[in-house]
Amino acid sequence: MVLGRSMRIIVSDTSCVIDLRKGQLLDALLELPYTIAMPRPLFDDELLNLKAEEKERLLVCGLELLDVDGTSVNTARAYRKRFKRLGLYDCFALVVAEQLEKSILLTGDKNLKKVAIEQGVEAHGVLWATDQLHKHKCCSAQRLKNALRGFLEDPLVFVPDDLIHARLRRYR
Description:
The chain is α/β, with parallel strands linked by helices and 172 residues long. The chain is built from ten helices and five strands; from the N terminus they run βααβααβααβαβααα. 55% of the residues lie in helices and 11% in strands.
């Protein structure tokens, strides 16, 4: 497995990619000083709402795809049985993040985040990603605010409103 740009690797699940896409922040995410990666099964099977052109653009812009080998599949299946609230694809993301030293799991799933932290994996959500975009000046504060306002209006973005409002005040 060859990974690029940085010592830190962000392994993303699909929920954060979908939310960041809704906020038109995916291209900015790939500008962060991290290697951004996703397990191949999630990219191939779960990002159904992304058109082929969008997926290709993500790859061209630097998204790394990580294969899940047989041992990892078995580990993910065992986790799926053990952690009933996680789906198999969640478990793929967790297993891949566990295998990569210094990785960060980026997830919008509170159950996956909780299990990852219990397993010793650093895990964060979409607002951490927006904080990183702000910190590293990968996009303007106005663009971040527009994305956050969109999150507030979208019933399928499950981020607490008070945390979004705190970011709206912070990003200047």
